């Protein structure tokens, strides 16, 4: 088997996500590239949780509507996923909780009792049975357990080995000679990318789907030298971040749409005061609370125009962990070089999805910082924080500076940061921000802002953004058509998108929304869209689901 999928399911509290990640690591260990989709309701206990782990010899970024192995820790897993199974599907189930199923029964409760192990280790027993049924050597499983399950390792190995001994080889998975790659979630890639960009401080109030950026950085704070703060609400998050940045600390915040609503006034303050901040903005199904643990691409317009007044902003929408790492690093550097707010616009699918990671997937040119112009720091004893320059970028110093007051201001201000309502000065500072927008465009457009794949000569093109990259790339490759993904959304790389679409007769936009927000953005720049394929049920496109929709259009 060169490609296959495993579905493992149970209730909240069964450790389904951890089990899925362990299976992904086992498959990675024997040479496969992996992608994992995690589906769960917004409940602490109860409700049906499941993961689909897909493995392939090639890089992948989407799941398929079938499973070769079904691992059931409860009856719901059997009942709710029958449509993904077929005659060749290998079913392994916990016989103490599944009363009706055909397949290999594993007496999980008896095994746990015999080993005096807690209930949560039932998933290790099922993983062991899966490895045996798939013909995966015990040594690979043991290595992964030792590497990734330090707590209760001995007990986990014992129950896994009992499950391994019960199951027999049903559908052998061949071992590849490919080297292992790191297996990362989107949130982990974002966290590491921020640090690669020079992050000093991360401030967030937990909000699905970006909560794990906070957790990852908090866990690695000492090792990475990052200060991590969890304030009382999102308003405090943004204002604390601006204070941190004013003091000279490269700072990022994390949230979702509802939290960013509370941050918008502070976002405008960043634009006016020219104090940079990076926002990790994870989209989920809305509006309002919506469905907190499911996905959407419905906040593009919000982020493009959030905040009162006019000011430049940088928005990037990575499509996989390689891009998430590279562009999160770039977002920090660009925000601080151009003194603008930056947004890393992601969604639940990417944030909580797990991918094989390679840094080489997206290498960006080095972004060099602006060297402060020391001659513009003082004039008549005043520090010119907003000195008017050809680029619009003023020298940025941080307190304390001897004999100088470093004044930033959200009110209209002069070059020294002193509040003013003088018409000429207001116009001058507005023109300064316009110059800064042009400087930002020059910096950003020198980077690879648009990703392309598939058949470059095709006159049909799938256009997508964000996490739909993986599924669109696979469908485009299968159908022999072109795929175009704008990675940067503001400032919008119009010329690069037009170049990528040169010769295309039919432009088909794929988006997880009901209104089609990317088509609206493309139309604003004179780029025609001929068809839209929209999904708005909180779930991402599967490979088969999107392929069917594309064939209907073509």
Task: Give a structural overview.
- It is built from 19 helices and 22 strands.
- With 554 residues, it is an alpha/beta fold.
- It has four domains: 3-166, Pyruvate-ferredoxin Oxidoreductase, domain 3 (3-Layer(aba) Sandwich); 183-361, Rossmann fold; 374-445, no CATH class; 450-553, Rossmann fold (3-Layer(aba) Sandwich).
- It has an eight-stranded mixed β-sheet with strand order 6-5-4-1-3-2-14-7. It has a seven-stranded mixed β-sheet with strand order 9-8-10-11-13-12-20, sandwiched between helices.
- Helix 4 packs across helix 6 and helix 7 packs parallel to helix 13.
- The relative contact order is 0.09.
- The model has no long low-confidence stretch (mean pLDDT 94).
Tally of DSSP helical segments: 19
Q: How many structural domains?
A: 4
In the sheet with the most strands, the strands line up as 6-5-4-1-3-2-14-7
Strand count, sense and barrel status of the largest sheet are: 8 strands, mixed
Percent of residues in beta strands: 15-25%
- CATH fold-level label of the largest domain: Rossmann fold
Overall structural class, as computed from helix and strand content, comes to alpha/beta
Oligomeric form of this entry? single chain
By CATH, the architecture of the largest domain is named: 3-Layer(aba) Sandwich
CATH superfamily of the largest domain: Thiamin diphosphate (ThDP)-binding fold, Pyr/PP domains
Number of extended strands: 22
Mean pLDDT over the residues:
94
CATH class of the largest domain: Alpha Beta
